[in-house]
Amino acid sequence: MKLSLVVPAYNEAENLPILAKEIRSLLGGMFEYEVIFIDDGSKDNTILALKKIAQEDSTCKVISFRRNYGQTAAMSAGIDAAKGEVIIPLDADLQNDPSAIPDLLKKLDQGFDIVSGWRKKRHDAFITRKIPSWIANWIISRITGVHLHDYGCSMKAYRARVLKDVRLYGEMHRFIPAYAAWYGARVAEIPVNHRARKFGQTKYGITRTFRVILDLLTVKFLTKYATKPMHFFGKIGFYSLFLSILSGIFALYLREWQDISFISTPLPLLTIFLILIGILFILLGLLAEIIIRVYFEGQNKKIYLVKEKINFE
Question: Which of 27, 74, 158, 307 sits CB 3.0–4.6 Å from 38 for a disulfide?
């Protein structure tokens, strides 16, 4: 199968029939494809709309959650069920224009593993949607080193093999391009048409920016220190111990040369505090090293990924 479209939906009963019709008119007869709709515990008639779509079109498949798990979980379920060589997620709110799919595939065929959509002309609220998005995209690009204009655009084309070993949690679906790029994937970005919402209400807000930043810190830690956590915790521990030495020396200097008693300055307490923090972080690093070894050795996982092998049987 050439293409799998993954469409998470939460309370989008009015939009889904229109989206299914647009996809069918665009891709019908072009090549073999499937559309996987995921009902993320909707409270409206989303599941009824999806069942009707599935009855009318055998290329449409439906996964229904028992409750609302969030967009990342829904997208992960769709990716797990997808059978296409290329996987393209898109939102169910009609703001992602399916007409951009051929352009994404064309760019992918130029040798890229991921092609990210860029909503260059967004039809969203300026304060609650655009500004948080600009901030989040700037922070993500700076921290990951993978510079994209629009990490939040769900419409991205992935080669299925790139997503094979990716496990998504929290809001991490938006970090897949950065995550894959760290492991050697080639990433490109093209502008895609973005449309104003006609039905329903948006599920995004300014508070989501803070959750994205927290998930970004997790991704950064896992990609850089997953196999060497002691380098992270140990570094903090040694910095803390070094500062405790400086604090202790300064306290002695004040006592011997400035005649300032230990009880007149917080430096002795700060010294002890920094020593304890340093020791705790080093011990935390040792504990993390043990956990990492149990994780890899207990499941026979490798600490590396092989792109290809030549002349091996």
Answer: 74
